[in-house]
């Protein structure tokens, strides 16, 4: 299986917590879209298997693309790749962009899944995060999307904000359960360096984020969704049967994917590469690459060759986050011996469950996933 990711680096306004690459100016939206078209054509041979099981429009806010921009992107994708008959094609959308007009044109396109960035159904939380929508739009958009035939929905929620008591968090989760949303992606609020939120906390304009609150609300989340029949198949992701995200599962299963657009990442099994996170430089690099200038490739992206140690560490990091865990059957001899020697301390503490050489985090272990993974990394 192979996947395609398109990064659309434009937003109406900046969320205080976000450290993704984006611009709030729409000035170059058309030019960047055309550059992504060119990158698709120029890099179509990156994937050995041109059959795509997933296409994901992320960002940024790809729901800002107009009808012509979406159409030319789909035309190019179909010209460069083969879409599987049941390919998952996801568009990230903000609630304020989910209108009857937009839903009608998305329905008429190949898009068959919407990823809605709701984050919360409470205005206090949305204001704290500086989201572009309000609570009324957050509630209305789900039923509207479903009425247009978009049953395959995923919704993003954020927990652990100082403005979110446990009762509000429960209301957020139960609202989605009651609406029959089949997939939820839920993230603890993280204070990333150089974000508006980091500055506000540093200057005393915003409360500190409490780890204890985030851990408590994560435990609540696991209990509520488990009781409602959702599978906790990745640390931040929950799905009703048959609704795991294909695209994101490709990442965790180390399938190959091509990322196009400013800041997009790609992986081919042997290396990772990431495009420059600057719209103007991205446009310049694509123009130069089109003219076959040798220096253009270096200007467009950076590459990291993955050593056997890198590949082992990445397998541990991604595999432990999932319900299928990691297996020693996939490890080379030196790594296997190291892993077995290191993992049992966590098995003995009840943080990892072992069955037939497969190791999976327990509920308690999921609270410490990154810490456990880092302790299992090979550094020799």
Could you explain the architecture of this structure?
This protein has 380 residues and is of the alpha/beta class. The chain is 42% helix and 22% strand. The strands form three sheets. Strands 7-8-6-5-4-3-2-1-9 form a nine-stranded mixed sheet, sandwiched between helices. Strands 10-11-12 form a three-stranded antiparallel sheet. A hairpin with a 2-residue loop joins strand 7 and strand 8 (237-239). The two termini are 32 Å apart.
Descriptors for this entry?
3-stranded antiparallel sheet; 380 residues; alpha/beta; 22% strand; 15 helices; 9-stranded mixed sheet
Break the fold down into its secondary structure elements and pairings.
Elements: E1 2-8, H1 29-42, E2 51-59, H2 67-80, E3 82-93, H3 100-107, E4 113-119, H4 123-129, H5 135-147, E5 153-159, H6 166-178, E6 183-188, H7 196-202, H8 211-227, E7 231-234, E8 237-239, H9 246-252, E9 256-260, E10 265-267, E11 271-275, H10 279-290, H11 295-300, E12 301-305, H12 308-319, E13 326-327, H13 333-348, E14 352-355, E15 358-361, H14 363-366, H15 369-376
Parallel strand pairs: 1-2, 1-9, 2-3, 3-4, 4-5, 5-6
Antiparallel strand pairs: 6-8, 7-8, 10-11, 11-12, 13-15, 14-15
Helix pairs in contact: 1-2, 1-10, 6-8
């Amino acid at each position: 299986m192979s996947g395609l990711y398109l990064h659309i680096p434009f937003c109406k306004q900046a969320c205080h917590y976000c450290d993704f690459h984006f611009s709030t100016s729409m000035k170059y939206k058309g030019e960047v879209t055309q550059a992504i078209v060119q990158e698709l054509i120029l890099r179509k041979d990156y994937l050995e298997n041109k059959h795509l099981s997933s296409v994901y429009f992320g960002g940024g806010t790809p729901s800002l693309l107009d009808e012509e921009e979406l159409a030319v992107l789909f035309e190019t994708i179909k010209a460069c790749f083969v879409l599987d008959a049941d390919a998952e094609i996801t568009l990230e959308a903000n609630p304020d962009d989910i209108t009857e007009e937009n839903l009608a044109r998305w329905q008429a396109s190949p898009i068959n899944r919407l990823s809605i960035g709701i984050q919360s159904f409470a205005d206090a939380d949305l204001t704290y995060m500086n989201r572009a929508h309000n609570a009324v739009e957050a509630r209305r958009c789900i039923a509207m999307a479903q009425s247009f035939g978009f049953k395959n929905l995923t919704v993003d929620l954020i927990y652990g904000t100082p403005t979110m008591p446990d009762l509000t968090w429960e209301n957020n989760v139960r609202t989605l359960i009651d609406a029959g949303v089949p997939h939820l992606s839920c993230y603890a609020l993280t204070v990333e360096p150089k974000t508006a939120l980091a500055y506000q906390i540093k200057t005393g304009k915003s409360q500190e984020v409490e780890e204890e609150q985030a851990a408590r609300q994560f435990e609540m989340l696991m209990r509520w969704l488990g009781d409602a029949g959702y599978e906790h198949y990745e640390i931040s992701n929950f799905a009703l049967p048959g609704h795991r995200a294909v695209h994101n599962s490709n990442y965790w299963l180390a399938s190959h994917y091509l990322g196009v657009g400013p800041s997009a990442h790609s992986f081919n099994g042997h290396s990772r590469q990431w495009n420059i996170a600057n719209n103007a430089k991205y446009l310049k690099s694509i123009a130069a690459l089109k003219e076959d200038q040798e220096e253009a490739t270096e200007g467009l992206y950076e590459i990291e060759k993955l050593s056997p140690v890198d590949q082992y560490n990445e397998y541990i990091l991604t595999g432990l986050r999932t319900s299928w865990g990691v297996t020693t059957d996939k490890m080379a001899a030196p790594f296997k011996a190291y892993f077995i020697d290191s993992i049992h301390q966590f098995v003995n503490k009840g943080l990892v469950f072992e069955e037939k050489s497969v190791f999976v985090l327990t509920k308690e272990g999921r609270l410490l996933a990154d810490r456990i993974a880092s302790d299992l990394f090979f550094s020799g």
